[in-house]
């Protein structure tokens, strides 16, 4: 038989039994997705035109039997909340968010109790007694308030159950478990009314107690037949999980004491090529899937009978991008959950930005820059909303917390950006209306760019918003923005994205559950890791494991058996099987290979060819190649342009000595660091604040002789000036709290100590006159070893005449020691980065030497080494230190400087990165 072998066999059997009169035939399948494939099998099985039989899912049958409307989990939760409020005293009621945390789990337990037809009162009494025993305090007077509340919860379970059942039945609706229990109650009447019909159950494996009773009743009344699709290899191996349910049913159902068990097949023992492929990271699996599909397409261009089964839904997008362009048709039959939906991820950030802003401000929305930038820089809106001016302003003004209305860019923002940025209130209808407008504007752009995948995701999100609007109209539980987001999360977690494709043509991409009943010749299964396939153990229930075992409720053992069956059914009729798993032992998606792979390798079937491949990214021969840039003619022209135009500054030469590649990037190419918001003041920003404050404080006294009274006046004005510089250089709305307050105090202390030193030196008799602040200096350097005239330039923080000596002073926020500015010899100074500070001071001397007849000194004031005072350049000779910059010294320094500049300009010397 060809692909869909089981369905072909089923169609042939029904055609053989009923010819083409299917008026009395109802076929029940585990899911709805297999219906289309079964109809195709009927086309192949019959040779004339006919009306197709009725094909339904097990849920459809239960709905018919129970005669109630099964609510989805969110509607059920909202209905339960209505019941909860009716039977709970007002002072003890929780809000919806608190309620939903435990109610979801309780509803799952109600569902299990009903599906397995247990007596609710027995289960609840059992649980209550267990929890009373767990609390050793038998005496009521010994109970704490917390224990009493805890025990009250268990006492309330029967009341919750009964009230919910009554409430739902009055509305002719219910949850799945209720529908199953009612279906069992109604089965006898149903059999009497439909005695002429024949029900075929096909492809089932695990059944709950209600399903078992319904099917057995139909079998007993000759109204049903079951085709199991069980392989003898699994059925006869009592340790094999894939046959766990089949063995139990075959042994326990009285029907099989006198009737054959249909069908047992022997497909697993046929020849199979199994390739087990390991690769690091999930994206590696996507890449390999694309390569395997490309390889399979060589012998099967249409990729008929080929399926890619994704154990992890979030692999869908990487796999779609990894498929070769030659795949002309494919069908995606799987749900794609909200956690990986890029549109919902954007709106999750959008909701977080607004709700946090609403909670942060008392009467106004105060936004946090990281949350805002996450939204504004998201690719879904960044281009169409023209968010760059606003992003630039936030970064430039260093706004860590702010109100949108205070942004200059808000006045010229696009309509879409206004929708994104406008602060929320607690008016829920208004928020929903704005979200809908936002969706429509994004949709318009996606249609223009023909981004069909994003449109599908956007449509799924829009459905979620419509559901919320409907629920709000009906239940009125959403009273503020925070509750809106809570409801949104509940619905979004259940929302799935459906893709359109060619169901019967080309490559099939599906999830594990969607593969039930279907058979393929070539199967690629991804994420065959423990915790993914099979899924890990989860205890999302109030009922303990040992109680579940005693009551006959399913545990992780049954869950494992279900996954085992699904896995081996995928392999059952396949000829070429590729099992991919993530071999990475670290990271969020890491894990060990699945036990299924271990089972296939340690206990291989004689007719199976099992091959193991390990794929790794190609590692380079060296960890990193040193980066270098050759001086092309264009680069040489750029260097000449800098040398003759702006010139080389002391910081640029220091840049080159530290790392020539950094010099190339910053000074030659002009690449600057991207503006980012500083939540806490960075060291360079603090330095700018101190420099700016000292400049403005001393500016009125340039050209004047300093006095103690002047310094005392400056001391009084210093705090106000520092606050002003804080706003200019850091943020105009920054709050001085935490680290920012500490930084503000540090700036104040630094300026204070500098002024106190100034005052002390004046008191000791120093004669000081300031002649320049932040003064531009420059000189032209001509030398026969240089290819052309070079300009040297720089900015001196302060130039003064102190006791008839001209001093050039540079402020440093970082720590500078005396040995960094004093040298023992001039030879080799320009080739060692440790002399960077000394080079800077000598350059200042060189640039100013011709502008004065006074002796010259140059020094540094280090705010982190204030106790040392002014650190003056000095040349140590015979235990003596000469702190004056002389013509002879500058001549020797110029020779050293020329060597450095020659190296920078030399076309044969590359710019090469150095390790610091």
From TrEMBL:
Coiled coil: none annotated. Residues 648-912 form the PD-(D/E)XK endonuclease-like domain. Signal peptide: none annotated. InterPro entries: P-loop_NTPase, PDDEXK-like_dom_sf, PDDEXK_AddAB-type. It comes from the Bacteria. This is PD-(D/E)XK nuclease family protein. It comes from Paenimyroides aestuarii.
